[in-house]
Amino acid sequence: MAEVLLSKSNYFKTATLNAALRGQSFTAPSTVYIALYTSNPTAADTGQEVSGGAYARQPVTFSAPTAANDLASTSNTADVNFAVATADWGTITHIGLRSAATGGNLLYHGAVTSPRTILANDRARFLAGSIKVDEG
Question: What pTM does this model have?
Answer without folding.
Answer: 0.94
